[in-house]
Amino acid sequence: MPAAPFVAKLNEQIGHEFAASQQYVAIAVFYDAETLPRLSAFFYAQALEERNHAMMMVQYLLDADEDPVIPGIAAPRTRFADIAEPVAVALEQEKRVTDQISALVGVAREHHDFQSEQFMQWFLKEQVEEVSTMGDLLKVVQRSREDPLRVEEFIARENFGGEEGEDAGAPTPAGGAV
Description:
69% of the residues lie in helices and 0% in strands. It is mainly alpha-helical.
């Protein structure tokens, strides 16, 4: 059985993951409106990934016979000054999520909830990748602010954010991956 404080924090994190998903949809829509299809596709894929993270957490709680809470979330930010600002928002969001995931591991450890701590290990690893990816993308977008098609070319050339295949160690999302 997961420790009650961990369950409470994990339910909060489910909300954070859904909020991250919605923010990425809003960013994707911004890039869609700017006719930047590769940036848009990248963020639509990120939105799905964040949604699946929330559903992995839901499945963990279901498997542990705990009640998942699906909270309402605040509206995402939808207006941006230029093409770099949405990526800066995404990078800050990923840094915040990294802190939240680390805090969840700390709660599990503090309460000797070793199963929950082990469950969170995949998310720790995932956040290293997410922060790195957004940091790299921000550098490229900042350099290409005046010529957004260079970002599109970079994403295509480098297969940036492309499918890497399924991670066999990833937790299973509730309802299966979409």
